[in-house]
Design goal:
single chain, about 270 residues, alpha+beta, two-stranded antiparallel ribbon, 5 helices, about 25% strand, disordered C terminus
Length: about 270
């Protein structure tokens, strides 16, 4: 199963249904009905070949390509509990250093969120969010992408969650995320959990790398981004990000700069004298 298929519902035929269909009284059918019946048999066989429930609790297995000794399964509901002791010490970088990190930067709206579990050599619960991308500031990002989150918003969090803990379907945010590759993930002495088996990008930290419009206000680490500490909208954050990554701001300021460089004096907006 590819990571894009994490957000597609899979219908599987039960074995009893196939047996009932095979045992049904035979009837004379025309070629059209015979072709339809053949298709149904093929679909039923494909359904039986799909992975069955891996463990209790309504978890559905997910095929992996890169992880080693780690199985992934989608959970029918988030785990019980309001938090975890998982934490990490932060190296507090300056904004210039943060924007120098090898991240893609994009703005988008959360369309769907699903909870997953990694188990085996690495036991962990996490979230995959489907993002409808509205603006890309740096890097290559498709119109829709998936994002691995190291938390289950509202259920399991950690000291790095920040605005991610309030992320919900319908939330709009600006994310600074890392591309998920075959080498990115968590290694243990017994195996390897690869982020690329779950999503296109990963964002384990929300404190410095996420600007969230929660619907009740703008959430981000204002102590880090002191230049925009008073920002109240993502549009303000967007302007700041464009400046920080060296994009031209456009508009009247560029026009005035071009006029000055050409040697011509800017037009006088005041009233002319005698």
């Amino acid at each position: 199963m590819k990571k894009e298929e994490l957000f597609r519902a899979i219908g599987a035929a039960e074995e009893e249904q196939v047996m009932d269909a095979l045992a049904a009284p035979k009837r004379r059918r025309g070629p059209r009905y015979l072709a339809a019946a053949a298709c149904l048999v093929l679909l039923a066989a494909a359904g039986l070949a799909l992975p069955r429930i891996l463990r209790g609790g309504g978890s559905t297995p997910v095929d992996t390509q890169y992880s080693v000794n780690v199985a992934l399964s989608e959970l029918s509901k988030p785990p019980e509990g309001s938090g975890s002791s998982q934490s990490a010490d932060l190296v507090w970088l300056e904004p210039e250093e943060i924007f120098a990190l090898d991240t893609v930067i994009f703005r988008g709206t959360v369309e769907e969120m699903r909870c997953y579990e990694a188990h085996g050599a690495y036991d962990h619960v996490f979230t995959v969010a489907a993002i409808a991308v509205s603006e890309v500031y740096r890097g290559e990002v498709e119109d829709t992408c998936t994002l691995y989150l190291n938390v289950v918003p509202g259920h399991v969090t950690n000291s790095l969650a920040g605005p991610l803990d309030d992320l919900r379907v319908g939330s709009e945010a600006i994310f600074m995320a890392y591309p998920a590759t075959a080498e990115t993930g968590v290694r243990t002495d017994k195996g390897f959990f690869c982020y690329a088996d779950a999503a296109d990008f990963y964002c384990g930290e929300g404190i410095r790398l996420v600007f969230l419009d929660s619907g009740e206000g703008l959430e981000f680490e204002r102590e880090v981004y002191q230049e925009i500490a008073g920002a109240a909208s993502l549009d303000e954050v967007e302007d700041y990000i464009r400046r920080m990554i060296g994009e031209e701001s456009g508009g009247a300021e560029d026009a005035e700069q071009g006029t000055q460089e050409s040697g011509a004096a800017p037009a006088d907006s005041g009233s002319g004298g005698a």
